Fold:
Amino acid sequence: GGPNERGGPNERGGPNAESGDPLLRAQILQSAGRHREAIAFYRNAMASGADPGECHQGIALCHQRMGEADAARDAYRKAIVAYEKQRNTARWRAAEKGLTACRAALEVLGE
Structure:
């Protein structure tokens, strides 16, 4: 995985593809290269209350890996907006890392 991925250990237990956690499932599908399916699970995760910045960033990376630059840029912009809303919250340190990664990805995509 590259620097824009939002992987890492999951506090809720070991990952498996049949997990009921849509965010974890999205991350597993993304890692497996099943990007279109992963996008659907990232959207489900957001609807279930998962961090919108992390979900939009995952969607963006999926689009980027599928060569869909316009959709990737749009999703990275949404991730940046979501992360910026986390200023002055307990999640700011994680959001800052997401912001940095999203801005770098937009530069790579020519924005």
